[in-house]
Every structure is written in structure tokens, then in C-alpha cells.
Amino acid sequence: MTVGINSDTRNMAQVIDGRAVARRLEEQTMAEVDALVAAGKPHPGLAVVLVGDDPASEVYVRRKIKKCDEIGICSFEYRLPAETTQRELLSLIAQLNEDRVIHGILCQVPLPPHIDTRAVLDAIAPEKDVDGFHPVNVGRLSTGTGGIVPCTPLGVMMLLETVIDDFVGKHVVVIGKSNIVGKPIAMLLLERECTVTVTHIYTENLAELAAKADIIVAAAGAPELVKGDWVKPGAVVIDVGITRVTDQDGKEKLVGDVKFDEVQHAKAVTPAPGGVGPMTIACLLHNTVQAAKAFYQGAARNRDDPYHDAPDRSLIYGTAAKLQFACRGQERKESR
Ligand code: NAD
Prior knowledge:
Layout: E1 14-15, H1 18-38, E2 45-51, H2 55-71, E3 74-80, H3 86-98, E4 104-107, H4 117-123, H5 135-143, H6 151-161, E5 171-175, H7 182-191, E6 195-199, H8 206-210, E7 215-218, E8 236-239, E9 243-246, E10 252-255, E11 268-269, H9 276-301, H10 313-317, H11 320-329
Parallel strand pairs: 1-11, 2-3, 2-4, 5-6, 5-7, 7-8, 8-11
Antiparallel strand pairs: 9-10
Helix pairs in contact: 1-9, 2-9, 6-7, 6-9
This protein binds nicotinamide-adenine-dinucleotide (NAD).
């Protein structure tokens, strides 16, 4: 099936600038941290658990920690050797669940093969599960009853909101049905009254399905899968996929799931990289701060807030600038 592809530069698709939207979200998140601190609460705390020495995970973790520092979130790194047992990891998670200074727990995946990833993710307290992977949060999302939303799908929704005013009745084709991207995106869009078709590697006639969609969310990890004639003129295209490939000159580059140059007849499209990626980290920071706010609201309701009557606590934690000193210098940054 072929639809007209407009190569006229006067009708180029709007490029959704994920970096700019992420920056706005980070500024908002930073303001929320400042408001918490001004109210006498400590800075939100995020525990980042990394098991083994997977190079890609190492890069992601470093990026997340750097962003935490910029925003005023106190990050606590737990670097464990690859031979850490499941029991040891679960014991650490249990300890972090009880720790009142930690509001979010992130366990970087993939975990080494001898560890049951599901068991570890399930052990994180749902209210600290800032990745939104715990079954309680998954259940809340699918029943539309709140909970913590996974970062990438939340970022996708925020990007869509910059170009779509009214989601009701829109036909969406989601390409990919993973638990961390495809399925939660489908749930979020169903909540907005979209008609959602979730597709995957075994879907037949994917191109024809996609070509009928008002919105395409491509999250397959299949480089340049979505061609120009898969996209209806005026559709919105979100490219979640990101794959490292080697080009003809032997150079490595990152490629999305969408053939960007061919979809300029769309209403709007995200670049990859520079679209969804920056939103994922910004949403992690957002989720952590929301978890901290929920913790203090709940604690205040329960009259169980150690900081509730202790505004001087802000003197200990100070401003975002002092925070780095406070966090980085303390013994809680454990390395094993
Ligand atoms: P996954 O491998 O868990 O799932 C991929 C899904 O896509 C599966 O449901 C599979 O059936 C489907 N699929 C694969 N090839 C297909 C094809 N040719 N046609 C139709 N469906 C196909 O992957 P994931 O974890 O969901 O990630 C998907 C992509 O999104 C990857 O490229 C990943 O790197 C990227 N990603 C990006 C971010 C970000 O922050 N930018 C975050 C998460 C994932």
C-alpha cells in the first residue's frame, strides 16, 4: 500500500524536541524539590542498584546519577559484584524499602542470569518503585487507579500532549508489546479514550494497520522498520526504538524504528536520538520526587513524620548545591 509522501519542505513534519520537553520537566521537578526543602523536608532520595559491570548499564546509571545531582535528588549508589546472590540482593532491597531517606529504588536491568529479575522487581516496595514495574503499579495502571507509571511510557504521553489536544477516539497503533514500553503505553492511551491496536513481531499486515493510525508509537527495536508509506498524512509518530548499528564506513550510530526522512508528511515526529530518550530520565526524576511527596503527605497524615516538626532539617540538607556535598560525602554511598 502506498500513500503520497510529501517531499515539499514547506510541509515538513513538526519535530518534537524531546530534549526541550525534558528540560521543562526537569525545571518543574527542581522547583518541586525546592518547595519540599523549603517546607523543611530532606531532599528526595533515590537508591540506584547496579549488579555486575554491564557497560551499557554503567553508562545509564552514570547519566541518571548526574541528573539527580543537577535536580537536587540525593542519589545513593549500590554497586554489587556480578556474583552477588539473589538472597543478598533481596536483602539489600528489603533494607532500602525500610530506609526513610530513600523514596525511590531503581534496580538497573539486565541483572546477571543467575538472578530472577522478576523476583527482585517484585520485592521493591510499590510506593518506591520509581520504574513502575511492580505488579501493584502495573495493576493500578491497567485499572486506571493511579500508581507509578513507567518512565518511558510516561515520557511518550508527555511528548504526545505537546502536539495533540484531544485524544478521544484517536486510533493508535503501538508497535511492540513489551511490559516496559508497549503494554503500558497502550494502557495509558486507552485511559485517554483512544482506540489502541497493539502489534508485535507476529502481527500480519502491520504496514496496512499502521497506515490507518492517527498515532503510531514504534517500540520494536527494529531499525527503520516504519517506512514512509506506513504513515498516514497528518499522523503523529513517536519513535521509541533505539538500536546501535554499524554503518557502511564501519562507524557506530544509533538508529530509531522510524525512517525519519520518509515520514515528513506526518503532522509531527520524534527524532531518535533526541526524542523519547531524554524524557525517560526526566520522568525517573519526576517519579522520584512524586514518591517523596507522597511519602511526606502520607507520613504527615499518619502523624509519623520525623521531619514534620523539624524545619531545621533543611539546614542539614541545605540547597541543591550543598546537597551534593551532603550526599556524596556520606557513608551511605555504599560500594561493595
Ligand atoms: P523488547 O525486545 O522487550 O520488545 C520488542 C517488541 O517489539 C516485542 O513485542 C516484539 O514482538 C516487537 N517487535 C520486534 N521486532 C518487530 C518487528 N519487526 N515488527 C513488529 N514488532 C516487532 O524491547 P523494549 O524493551 O520494549 O524496547 C523496544 C525499543 O525501545 C528498543 O529499541 C529499546 O532500545 C527502546 N527503548 C528506548 C527507551 C528510551 O528511553 N528511548 C526506553 C526503553 C526502550
